[in-house]
Amino acid sequence: MQKLVLFLLFIITVLNLGTAQECQPNRMLPDTAIGPYPRPYDRETNPRGGITDTACVNRDFRFVVTLAVPNSFSILGNPITVRNIRIHPDTAIRNLPRGLDYACNPPNCIFPADTVGCIVLYGTVRDTPGIYNVSISGFASTGFIDLPLTFPDATLFRGNYYLIVKPAGQCVTGTDDLAELEVSAVNHPNPFSGSTQIVIHSTISGNFNFIVRDLVGRQVHRERLQLWEGENKLRYDADGLAPGVYLFTITDGARQFSAKMVVTNE
Prior knowledge:
Blueprint: H1 2-20, E1 35-37, E2 55-56, E3 60-69, E4 72-75, E5 78-81, E6 84-86, E7 93-94, E8 100-105, E9 110-112, E10 115-124, E11 130-141, E12 146-151, E13 161-166, E14 183-188, E15 195-202, E16 206-214, E17 219-227, E18 230-237, E19 244-251, E20 256-263
Parallel strand pairs: 2-13
Antiparallel strand pairs: 1-3, 3-10, 4-5, 6-9, 6-11, 7-11, 8-10, 11-12, 11-13, 14-15, 15-18, 16-17, 16-19, 19-20
């Protein structure tokens, strides 16, 4: 009897995991739609876009991105035929907080031309509260070459996919906190060796701390910043750091932004 109960619990668990990884694309998009939906968040051009659901530490999270794949697109006025868009099923999405994963529909993460598919972000957040700058990378297959694609893209899909993570018990499922976003940042290049430039966008001016920690929480760098409203730039030198993943945080005590950066030895 005990074995039967354990077997049934195993079957229920597997079924629940399968359900968590399934997604259905938004079929209400216009016929001319291409690319990811919702479009990336941009304070000026698309303030209602991006990842509009807030995540909470130790709480289940789920958000679906629809991908409309065209049969062609134009580069510098030249038409390019598209066979499919594909992303890696394990490593295509960067800067997800620990505990979150993603899955595709189709399951192999290959989206044929003239179809609509989806990517679901799901899981239970086990990471530091903050703002994570999420990106999706992949390739458009033309039949001759594979063209690298990134969402968001400064030219085609301007903006950011910010995922706001709040402390345990301090968020409401489905709440859009992007309207309150005051500080965000992204570093280029990433991954990098030597140094990287961190571009910080702020809607306020004031004194902040810039802190870098490794994945076990040890602080490896700290400095004071004066941020001004608008775009700010900071050069960070990683000489002396072992290759690996690090978390940088910009905070004034009342608010903070966090993102991951990867140091390589190349």
